[in-house]
Amino acid sequence: MFLNQRRNALCADAMPVTIISRHAGMDAALLARAENMAERLLVLSGRSKFQVNIVFTGDEELQQLNQHYRSRPEPTNVLSFPFMEGAAASLAKLPIKELGDIIISVDRAEAETLLFGESLHRRLSWLMVHGLLHLLGYDHEKSAEDADIMYAKEQELLRQTDTFRRTKMAHLAINVDHVATIRQARGITEPDPVTAAAICELAGAEGIVVHLREDRRHIQDRDVRILRETVQTKLNLEMGAAREIIAIALDIVPDMVTLVPEKRAELTTEGGLDIVGQKKKLAQTVARMNKSNIPVSLFIDPDLEQVKASLDIGATFVELHTGTYADAADEKERDRQFELIRVAAEEAHLLGLRVNAGHGLNYTNTAAIAALDCIEELSIGHAIISRAVFSGLDKAVRDMRAIIERASYY
């Protein structure tokens, strides 16, 4: 075997994919996407319980390996080292279910992106598919017939990973908190967020979102109770895991609740929940909601550990925090944040979670998020209410819905 350091890969509780990077070109987002892709390939190939180790390195190391193991002095793009020769026939009998190692030259992959006109992630995905099939016993060098069989299997796996998981456009759920904020500024009865919710639904919104805060700075108990009776689409109650608010949610039974962090001094929600650090408390709240048949969404940053922790405590949905993406100072940082969201959305979907997104989305940055096929719903409030000041609420809603529709079907 090539790898001397297994990173506990042979342990019974090892993860199916071990990723090792020895190349500067593999940043955190690219590595996360590669791990996500590798896990998906194991599922699609019927080997979800098997271990595979993937090393990203450069031409120099691949050349040395190619020379040592295949007596070929030139570098190559990918090499595979099965756990044992003839493993395809005997893997099922082994107490340790390991396929082997895939070694990929990122240098060669980067050069091939120019040749084939595709992204680095896409090229690395093909190399992982190619390497995995070698571990499974396919060999294009045996004969022309074997080459055709392996090529067909490669294309099949790539098609499966490319298949859209969403068959319709992302839904638009509108947060009407800021209508209540204007009302509370004067301490009177208008503008009414309940009326605003009705206008939004008539204009095409598929859901209404309100955040009942402990300090009641905008939405009031009365609003939530009336909305529960009047909303015709779906009422999503955002809330902190506070005893008083939990009791209200259990009493009115909204269509779903979204647990969010809440600080007294914040102007608006500043980031995602720390599920990893609050597992016990949040798991208890999720369990109470589930017992009352209220689906729970957890508002989290696009972080893979938070995604997995959300699954562990029984959430149905995650809502990915898009605020850092929306507030990015330049295009490079925005692209980096977008990749984190895309990876987290794919990972959540792969784990069986349903995925929403929101915070800071507006008329210029929403389309890219709406185009992500794993995301079912976008929660947008401030941008729509702000535009409504000038264009009217009906038109503001319809304009945003048109952006999402175009992006979803592009």
**Beta-strand level of the residues, as a percent range?**
15-25%
Which spans have pLDDT < 50 for at least 5 consecutive residues? 1-14
Q: How many helical elements?
A: 17
Please summarize the sheet with the most strands. Answer: 8 strands, parallel, barrel
Shape descriptor reads elongated
**Mean pLDDT over the full residue set:** 88
Give the strand order of the largest sheet, numbering strands 1, 2, ... along the chain: 5-6-7-8-9-10-11-12
Determine the CATH superfamily of the largest domain.
Aldolase class I
What is the name of the CATH topology of the largest domain? TIM Barrel
* Helix-strand string: EHEHEHEHHHEHHEHEHEHEHEHHEHEHH
The total count of strands amounts to 12
CATH class of the largest domain equals Alpha Beta
Number of domains: 2
